[in-house]
Structure formats: C-alpha cells, structure tokens
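Box 3.1. Reading complex inputs
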Amino acid sequence: MEMDLNAQVKKAGFLQRLKEFPSKLQDGVTKRIKNVQKFGKDDPRRIIHSLKVGLSLTLVSMLYYVRPLYNSFGVSGMWAILTVVVVSEFTVGGTLSKGLNRGFATLIAGALGVGAVHLARLCGDKGEPIVLGIFVFSLGAAATFSRFFPKIKQRYDYGALIFILTFSMVAVSGYRTDEILVMAYQRLSTILIGGTICILVSIFVFPVWAGEDLHKMIANNIIKLANSLEGFEGEYFPSSEKTSKETNSCVQQYKSILTSKSAEDTLANLARWEPGHGRFRLRHPWTKYLKIAGLVRQCAFHFEILNGYVLSDVKIPLDFISKIQEPCSIMSREAGEALKDVAKCIKTMKRDNVSINKHIEKSKNAIQSLRIALKTSSPETEKDLLEIIPGVTMASILIEIVNYVEKISEVVEEFSGLAHFKETPDPKVSPELGQHQLLHRGTVKPVLEGDNEEENNSSSHVVINVHDEQPPTTNEKQSFGRREDDESRCRVDMLSLPKL
Amino acid sequence: MEMDLNAQVKKAGFLQRLKEFPSKLQDGVTKRIKNVQKFGKDDPRRIIHSLKVGLSLTLVSMLYYVRPLYNSFGVSGMWAILTVVVVSEFTVGGTLSKGLNRGFATLIAGALGVGAVHLARLCGDKGEPIVLGIFVFSLGAAATFSRFFPKIKQRYDYGALIFILTFSMVAVSGYRTDEILVMAYQRLSTILIGGTICILVSIFVFPVWAGEDLHKMIANNIIKLANSLEGFEGEYFPSSEKTSKETNSCVQQYKSILTSKSAEDTLANLARWEPGHGRFRLRHPWTKYLKIAGLVRQCAFHFEILNGYVLSDVKIPLDFISKIQEPCSIMSREAGEALKDVAKCIKTMKRDNVSINKHIEKSKNAIQSLRIALKTSSPETEKDLLEIIPGVTMASILIEIVNYVEKISEVVEEFSGLAHFKETPDPKVSPELGQHQLLHRGTVKPVLEGDNEEENNSSSHVVINVHDEQPPTTNEKQSFGRREDDESRCRVDMLSLPKL
C-alpha cells in the first residue's frame, strides 16, 4: 500500500514536471537569448565584426556565383574563401598582420615549391618522390623550429605556418600535375583577392583599431586604479560619508590590472601593423604604452597588499587611526585625483600637467603631515609598537603608492611629447593653481645669434612671469621661461621643486 | 689637396671594410648558428617537435606518392596536408584539442552545408545563389559572434573557425558541382587521415604533455619563490656569509611568477584534453593547479614589495636592524625551506607533511621572536619612530609572506589527496623530527563492532606512542594514533597545535 502511494506520488511528480517542461524550456531559452543580447550590447563592435565577416564571405562567394569570374578562377576560388575565414580578425592590426603574413609567405613558399618540383624532376621517376620528400621534411622541420624563436613567434608565426603549408602543398601536388605554374598562379591570385577583401572591409567598414584599444585600455586601467585609491578611504576609515558597500566595488577595480599584461602585449604587437589613423601617426610610440602599463601594474601590486591589510581583522588602536586618518585620506584621495587627470590627459590626448602636479603636490604634502603625525604620536603609544605595526605598514605602502603615481605622471608626460599630445589650449595661470599667483607678466624679444628669423617669428619671445610664492606673504620670485611654448612646463617644474 | 687626402682615406677605409667583410660575415653567421644551437639545447623538445612535424608531413605525402592511395583520394589529399600543418601543436593537449575540434566541426558543417545546397536547389536557378548567400552570411556571422563568448573561445574557438570555413566552402562550391556528396566524403576522410596521423605522432613519438608541463611549471615557480626568499637574507643583511652578487640573481627569480598567469591558464586548458598519462589520471584536478599558482603569485606580489624596500636607499638604524635580523633571517630561510619541500612534494608526487610543517613551525616561532624583539626594542628607539618605519614594514610584509607559505602548504596538502599522491613510504619517527622523542611504542588490536575483519586485517591495530615532549625535561605526554596509516598525520597535527 505504501509502495503504491509512493509510486503514485512519483507519477504525479513526473506528470507535474512534464507539464512544467514547456514553460521551463521557454524560460531557459529566454534567459539564454537575454544573455546573448546583453553580451552583444556590452560591446556592439562584436556584432558589427560578425556582420563584417558575413559581408566578406558573401563578397568572396561571387567568385563562384558570377560565371565570368568562375571561368577564370575555377575551383581555386575556394582558396579565397579559406583566406577570408582565417584572415578576418577583430582588429585592423590583426587582419593586416595575418593578411600580409599570408600573402608574403604564400609568394615565397610558392616560388620555392615550384623550384623544388623542377629540381626533383631532374632526378628521374624513382628519385622524384624521394627528393621531394627530403625537401618537404627538412623545410617543414626548419620552419617549425623557427616558430619557437620569440621574435618570429611574436610577428611572423602565422607566416611560418603558411610557409610550411604552401610549400608542402605545391611540392607534393606538383608530383601529380604538370600545370603547376597555372595552379600556383590561380591559387596566389585568389588568396590575394580574399586577403584584399578582408583588409578593405576591416579598414573601411567600422574599423576596430588595436592601437586605439590599447590607448583606451591603458587609460581605463589608470582610472580603475584611481577609483580603487579613492574608494580606499571609505573602506579603511568607514566613518566617512560614503557607505562601505558602495565603495567596496570601487576598491576591487584594480584587480583586473594585476593580470592584464598579456592582453596589453598582444594589442601593442598588433598596433604596430596598423597604418596611421585618427590622432595616431604611423610611428606612434606603442611600446611606451607598455612602460606606462608596467608602472600602473606595479602600483596595483602595492594596492593589492594595501587591500590585504584592509580585509584583515587586525585591530589597530583608535587613537592611532585618528591620527593618521586625515593625511592617509588626503594621500589616497589626491593620488587618485592625480591619476584621473593623467587618464584624462591620455584619453583626450591633451597635456594638462598643472592639474596633475597640483594633486601630486597635495598628496606629497600629506606625506609630510603623516610623518609629523607619526613623529608626534610615537612617544605616547610606544608602550605597544606591536599594535600599530599594521597601521604603520599601511601608511608606508601608501607612501610608496604616491611615489609610483608621481612616476606614472612623469612617464606619461615624457610620452605625451613623443605622441604629439596637444598643449592645453589656454596655458594661462588658472585660479585653481592657488599656490602661485601671477603678479606681473611681460614679454621680451631675445636676440639670438644666427637665428632664422622666419622660423622663430611666432615664438621667439621670452616670458617673464612674476609669481607670488607664498600667498599670504609678499616674497617675490622670478621665473624665466624661454618660450611661450615652454611656459606651462616651466611653471610645472617650479611647482615640483620642493622634492619631498 | 686636403680633399684628395680625404678621398684617399675614405677609399682606404672602404677597401679595409671590403677586406674585413668575409671574416665579419663569417663571425656573424657563426654567432647566429651558435645562438640557434643554444636555443635548441635549452629545450631539445623543440628540435624533436620540428622533426615530428617533418615526419607527419612525409607520412601524409604518401597520399600523393603512392598510386593506389592517389587513385582513391585524388587532389583531396591536399586537405590531409593542410590538416597536418595546422593541427600539429607542441603539446599533446594542443594537438588533440585542434584535431578533435577540426574533425567534429568539419563533420557538422559538412552535413549542414550539403543540406543547405539541397534546400537552395529547390528555389530554382535564380534563387539558388541568393538562398546560399543568405545561409553563408547568417551562419558565418552567427558562428563568428559565438567565438566572442569566453567559454567557447577557451575550448572551441578553432572548431567555430573550421565550422565557418567548411560550411562556406561546401555551400558555395556546391553551387558549381553535382558531386557534392563525393567531394564531402573525400574531404572528410582525408581530414580524418591527416588528423589521425598528427594525433598518433604527437602521442607516441616523444610526447610533450601540457599537463606535465603545467605540473613542472607550478613546482618550478614555487622553487623560484623559495630561492628568492632564501636569497633575501643575504641581500638585506649582507653581513651573512654569502656574497651579495651571488644572492642577487636568486632574489630576482620570483619576477617571472608575477606575469605567468596566462601561460598557466593555457596549459591547464590544454591539459584537460589529454588522456591519462604517467601518474596523471584522466580526471586529474588540473584546475587546482591554478589555485596553487594564484597563491604563489600572491606571495610573489608581497615579495615584490619586500624587494622594493631592499633596493631603496632608506637607511635604518643599525641597532634596530640587529634586533630584527635574526628572526627575519629565520623566517625567510625557513619559509623558503618549507616552499622547497612543498615543491619537492609536488615534483615527486609524494606527501611529506612532516618536513614542511617543521619548517613552517620554525618560521612561525620566529614570528613570535620578532614580536618580542619589537616589543622590547620599542621603548628605547621611540625617539624616532620614523626611522624604523621601513624596517617595521619589511618585517610586517615578511609575516604576511610566512602566512601565505602556510596557506600554500595547506592547499597543496588538500591537492595531494585529490591527485592521489603517494604517502611517504616510511612514516616512522625520524631523528630529525627533534621535538618529540619516542620513548615507548606498542600496538593494541581494537575490537570494533560490526567491523569487517578481512578488510581491516592489515591495518586494524592502534598505535600508542609515548613521546618525550621537551627533550631536556622528563614531562611525558601520550599521543593516541588510531591507525598506523594515520600515525604521521597525527604527529603532524600535534606539531602544529601551538597556533600562533
């Protein structure tokens, strides 16, 4: 009886599930579709790229569909299809790198293959396959070995692959056909057609530039680090206004920087293949991005350790915290602000050192306040140095982070010169500058021996700025700028004079 | 006259360079050859892999050279060559992943392509290319879009590429040929032949297993970190016996760990495709390696910061250094020793927790000594807390590193169970154990209710060990192990009891 009941319950459950199945299936499918839609919306360039591949495929299919084209190329048209499928990469740099590698490798390997077949035919009927076999074995092995070399792997890996492929195919199939030259010509021309279609579609239909991606990625990484730094205050000193939950997501943003090296390397590598586009010239200093990224990552390493102290349950005496809270808050906040300005400078490709240096200056002043706070607080709390160790360590790492932020801003400044960033349109002393107030200003035309007057016509005057060094007092100081162009930099150098 | 002399000097210089050219060329070539030789010697598997590719190519060429084979496959043999070239990867996992992806994608796409051609033929002569074009465009775009999804990209990227390729080729060329089924059959069978040759050569001729590489890589990373930790002592307290130059190379070894994530991810991904081999079973916990690697990298991040303090020019008072020198040296040395034992445990695939825990214990004891040293030293040096901040920070980070080393050993112990590591063959009390001296030992056969006697025949005795807890005194303590197998673990648990 019990068994019977059990069976009934089971049957009812099964029927229930059978009834629910269509609605569950529908829910599952809707969920999937929504996921896919969200994925496409996150980066619409993915959808565009997919449509571009479809377009290239349709274009290249014309080699088959259009009778006159089919008559001249025949079944070799499928090499064009193959080329389109494998050469179509997401970025212009990727497509160009693959396309050019494929084109040149096919050309060289095809020529060598035809030569090898002719040479082998001299060895008679029995010798021919043996000689061809030796050629294919040795050249295949040598080209495969070359792919291990880092320099070749980085740039010509695909070319080496296509070299092996084409040489083997031409050499081996040359054994069975006499029209090897016609075949090689047809194949090469269809590959060129396929490659050209890909490259044209890639460049002229909503192009995705690897260089631009790299540029944005570096700027975004700096912003992430800045957000983490600014969130740190609210996380470590939760008495601040912001809620802890809100800042926590900010604080974790730096995590992705820790392991972004390979993505950056790949983009920098592809960016080299790209022609000039937008504000990026042909010889844009792509490798410099990697230097900036390296410093940003170093800074993120430090923040990772800092974050470890935030997450740990170690209790630090409240009176000690209250002493270091203000300078630490200022340090992290101003370092974050400085980084945001650096990122803005990269994003807009406009120099704006004044604002960056102002924030760095403030955070360095906070370091001094922190030192003073530590100095004055130590005699009272010496009874337990152990308790304040985590706090001291945290402060110490925060100082290192500020130093790194300064290094980043220096490297970006150097980079901005190489990458021809625009000067800020109006380099006048802005009221936010605060520390230095302009009292007098005049221009003097200098007499330079052997100076080409035409060349220097517009910029050969010296600017003398007289600043008010300490706003409340009246000690005056002269700064001699050499040219108007150098003016903002001069002031910047002066601002960063009091090295801490 | 002067001009004449100038020209003469130039000419002489040119002739000189012309004379030197052959010897220079020879030098250059010799240097290159030596470089290549060295590169091959560094990892002879590279040469072996190159020869394997040559071998596969030669084998697959037989489809052309041998008349009966050529009669049955014809020019489709070139698909076998193509498959061999693109599927031959360095590791077995890579070859299997590409081979299986290619095989299944060709099968599915080929079937769909034949279906599409039949469907298109129903639409009449004018409709056929339009319908085929729509099919190629939409399926090509959809498959390209699918390649953006991380899960598909990770495992089936190549399959999606081959799907687009095969479907487009079959559908488009189906427009111009009536023997589409014969063509599809020939192509599929040659691809299977090429793929099979590759996979067989890859597995049976000097195989390179991605899993084994991952296993060794993780162990080597741990050794690198251990070397850095052990070198740290000589670097930071150069009064030690070792010369600074010698240790410096050791200290820098951890650097490569900071950015090894992508290499580890790739290997773990390929290892999943590999069948069981050697001591690695089919369902070896490959993802656990990534967990260990993550902890090792975290530890390396900390060491990076620590190393920054070593390289900085900050001067720390000598009396403070002398106080923390000994515990810090012990901490880094013992943590390094513990890591070396962990690496040995992974390399040999044998558990040896006793030795690991002994070293961790010692380094944790050193943390206590360090705390005491800091506590006693603080009242005297409180006059300048600022000066000792770098030293305190260094010590604090070193403590974190020791904690990470303990975490690594715990995760590796958990992993050793999942990966079926061998127990250490002789778990008797070794004299090096030092802390616990065996005084008495006996076995008692327990009476367990409902115990299957046959099953427990060999291991159903209880061991009672009486240890001398503190060697110089005579306080005795009893430890009750349940079974002989658990004996070493019992002692280990006891050893780690005094948690710090």
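In summary: The first strand of chain B starts at residue 437 and ends at 444.
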